[in-house]
Hints:
Elements: H1 2-26, H2 33-61, E1 68-71, E2 74-77
Helix pairs in contact: 1-2
Amino acid sequence: MNSLLRRLTDGLFFVFNLALLAYAADQDLVDSGIVAWLLLLALQFLAIVIHESGHAIAAHLAGARLLTYCVGWFIYDFG
């Protein structure tokens, strides 16, 4: 079951990325493919930061002691 869930989330992430690129291309938000990929990477990083912040907030509210918050190259040490 875990493998099926992993495949489903990976597939949804892939579809989301394709939809975001298609929207950007359709709205003339980008001039070239490089700009589209950079925009995509920036938006993905922002989405991951927001998602992981939710985990950190939930852990804090549950009484866990947060030592480090890390997403990609962004690291914040609470200690």
